[in-house]
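As a warm-up, study this chain.
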Amino acid sequence: MTPTQAPQMLATVGRRARNKADKQERIFAAAEELFTRLGYSAVTTQMIADRADVGTGTLFRYADSKAELLMMVMNEKMRLDTREGIAAAASGTSPTEAIMALLAPQIHLPPACPENTAVYQREILFGTEQGQYRTEALARISELENAIGDILERFTGTHRVRPGVDLTGAARTTFSTLHMELIRVNIGRGDPRTLTETLRSHVDVLLYGVLAPM
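Now compare it with the structure written out below.
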C-alpha cells in the first residue's frame, strides 16, 4: 500500500461505517415507530423496510426476523428503564422501596404496549432464534437481576440475611415474579391498575417470608 492509498482506504472504511450506522438508525426508528403505533401483529417487515428506505435484503442483514426487530426496540427500552430505575433506587430507604423504585419503569410498560411486551416476553422465554437481539435481551435481564442483587447487598448492613440465603438467587426470583405478573396482565388475568401493589406485596413476601415467628 502506498502512502497515498492509505488515506483513501481509511476514508472508504469511514464512509462504510457511517452508512451502516445510518441504516441501523433508520431501521431502529422505523421499527420503533411502527411497533409503538400499530402493535406487533399489525406490522410487517416490508412496512419497516419501506419506512426506513432500505430493501428487505438489507433489513435482514441488521435483524434476522420480525421478532428480532421487536427485540431490538424493546431491548433499548429495557436498557433505558433499568438505567432510570437504578438511579431512582439509590434513594430507597428500605429494600422493598428501593426494589420497587428500580422496577417501576418496567411495571409501566404493559399498559403502553401490551402486545409488544407479551411478544418480547414470549421470545425471551420460548424463542428458538439465537440472534444478536435475543442474546442482548438475556443480557438486559441479567443487568436488571444484578441491580436487584446490588440493592440486597446494600441493605445487608442494616438487615440480617438468613444463613444459607443466596442473594443472587433471591434477585433472580424477584425478577421472575415481575416477569410472571407482567404475563398475567398481558393475558388478561391481572389488572394493570393494581400491578404495582401486587408486585409490592410479592416483594415483601420474598424479602421477609410468610410465617412470623411464634
